[in-house]
Every structure is written in structure tokens, then in C-alpha cells.
């Protein structure tokens, strides 16, 4: 049985570190979610506003996968209703911040070289 089978797709063995990286932060939404968390959109409602194309169901599942893998940490700031929950990058994986920023910088450079428009963030 694979590690976390049924919860997320992280396995106990990989043939290549890039495949693990893809399972951890790859796909259509995870890097965008991480970017928004890094830029202060650290609550579910803020993430929904910041990424309007994502459905609440998909956002929930992507956050859950990032949380289960330990990439992000969920903190309950206020228990009493209304409950306030924020998300942050796990301190143990702080280098992810520079990785996300480097991917954004690369994308901007590539877009400029290929005359692709990207709105300012």
C-alpha cells in the first residue's frame, strides 16, 4: 500500500526527485495557491478571491493535499465563531518561497522573450 493512499498521491518511493516535486507542488493550482499564500492571501476566502477560476471544492482538495504533505500549515487563529483559519508555508520548507519566486521570475522572462502578455501581479 502506498503512503497516504486514499488521501493524496505522495508515494513512499520515487524514481526521480522531479516526479516527487511534481506530486507535491505541480498541477494547475498548487503553485498559484502557494504564491497567494506567500503574498498575504492566507485565508480560504482570500484564496477564492485571488484565484476566481478555481471552484471551492477544488480549492479545498488542493489545500488539503498541500496540508497533508506538510507543505503548508493550517493555523486556527480564533476558535470562537466566526472561526478564523490561516494558512502558511511550513517553516521546515522555507526554501519553497524562493522556488515559487524563481518560477514566477522565469515565467516573466520567458513571456517577455516570446511576446506573451502577463498582467502585473
Query: What characterizes the major β-sheet?
Result: 2 strands, antiparallel
Please tell me how large the radius of gyration is.
16 Å
Number of strands: 2
Strand and helix order: HHHHEEH
Structural class: mainly alpha
Residue share in helix: 40-55%
Helical run tally? 5
The span between the termini is: 42 Å
How would you sum up the global shape? globular
Uncertain runs with pLDDT below 50, 5 residues or more?
A: 1-6
Average predicted local confidence, pLDDT = 92
* Strand numbers in spatial order across the main sheet: 1-2
Measured by DSSP, the beta-strand proportion falls in: 5-15%
What does this molecule look like?
- It is globular and about 50 Å long.
- It has five helices and two strands.
- It has 121 residues and is mainly alpha-helical.
- The longest helix is centred in the last third of the chain and has 19 residues, at 95-113.
- It starts with 16 loop residues before the first helix and ends in an 8-residue tail after the last helix.
Amino acid at each position: 500500500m502506498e503512503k497516504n493512499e486514499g488521501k493524496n498521491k505522495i508515494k513512499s518511493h520515487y524514481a526521480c526527485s522531479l516526479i516527487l516535486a511534481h506530486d507535491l507542488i505541480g498541477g494547475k493550482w498548487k503553485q498559484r495557491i502557494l504564491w497567494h499564500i506567500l503574498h498575504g492571501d492566507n485565508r480560504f476566502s482570500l484564496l477564492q478571491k485571488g484565484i476566481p477560476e478555481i471552484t471551492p471544492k477544488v480549492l479545498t482538495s488542493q489545500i488539503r493535499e498541500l496540508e497533508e504533505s506538510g507543505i503548508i500549515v493550517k493555523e486556527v487563529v480564533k476558535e470562537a465563531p466566526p472561526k478564523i483559519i490561516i494558512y502558511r508555508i511550513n517553516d521546515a520548507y522555507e526554501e519553497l518561497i524562493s522556488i515559487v519566486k524563481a518560477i514566477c521570475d522565469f515565467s516573466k522572462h520567458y513571456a517577455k522573450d516570446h511576446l506573451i502578455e502577463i498582467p502585473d501581479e
